[in-house]
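Per-residue structure
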Amino acid sequence: MPSSSFRDCQAWRAEGLPLSTTSNEACKLYDALLTQYVTWRNDDTLGGFEGCISAIQAADPNFVMGHVISTGLELVGTASSPRLNERLASAVRRTVELANSQNITPRERLHVRAMDDSCLFSYRNFPKASDVWEDILVDHPTDLLALKFAHDAYFYMGAQIPMRDSVARVLPYWKPQMPLSSYLKGLYSFGLLETRFYDQAEKVAMEGLAVTPDDAWSVHSVAHVYEMRAEVDKGLKFMEGREKDWQGSDVLASHNYWHWALYFIEKGQYEDALQIYDSQVFRRCKATGSMLDMVDASSMLCRLEMEDMCVKDRWRELLQVTQPHTDDHVTLFNDLHFLMVSLGAKESRTSQRLLEGLQELAKEPGDNQQHQLAGTVGVPICQAMMEYNKGNYNGAVELLYPLRYHMVDIGGSDAQRDVFNQLLIHAALKSENEHHQKLARCLVVERDAVRPDSPMTDRLMKRALALHA
């Protein structure tokens, strides 16, 4: 039985969020799972996520919200697709069947609807699923599961303004004494920084950290702010000073180390970045198989390679982790990072298979929002990356440049998508087309305007000016 600090049936009812089960243990385990999700942490005392999921099913096999959170967490992790994974598809169907056979609350019914295998979250119709979670939050603004699922879905869509406003709308209803209330600061801060309110984002995240120093998401939000402002030394000092607080959040730790390494890449201290890659990012990625860890490792090697670092052997190692996901096609963001690895490892058959699989799904995407985007955004970016890899920099620019203001649609954060901005600049610098070389200089000037005093921008500017010397 989880500790008494977790909420039982009566406590959930008292908060206006009743759960349709008579099992106090199931209610507490639901709370324990939600807490781990919000804090980005496998709590060993609870058996981590997996232990909690097993225990919640044992406590009450017919607990609908137990199924919603358990299956929803697997879906939100994007490591598996119900299109290919029959066990996962069956879990979604089972949740719907249970809901239809019970007298559950309207709020719980909406939760089930959001993951219904007919069209919504389980099949990557992120916009419709988000609408359902927002409907829940209108009547139940303290439903943290709805808020977090919506937040993650907006992240996968690159829906920056809705991600910010979704949290802003519910903040007044949260009181400081409510469980996990301080973590809303990190969620709101992240929405603020993704909509370029950097000063406010830093302030809000720091308010969260003043209450909960080990809130890894608030730390992560501040790391983003310093990255986007190119305040490199400030970022390095902050991450080092806070390391003992956030490294315990094992689900997010690798990502925070990735942010730390980005400061070193920005400064041109590549060996320091590689040390973090080897000791933290790749090590954790190999151990967890987490999608976030995989895309971070992929992106980091790509950035280092663009900075003329030889990472050939590391690509081959990483391929062993990403290759099994070649046919998943859960999110475009994941696909593009898997492609980085197969291209870096010179595994042309895997690269071609990934591209062709995406092209095939784009022909008849149905309600799958990611596959709808594949034809207009995903496939052309894949092709641009392949052209760059072949040394056809002219072709890479021609494919990438028209998409630069649509790349937000692939999801992720500004910091994560910046790898594609860098790829476009490097392609333009390397192109033999004089117009592209001039374009490179324009893009670097533009970058300097939004990130003044960036060492990386200075290096790129020197290269651009050398072309016109």
About this structure: Residues 1-146 form one domain. The mean pLDDT is 93.
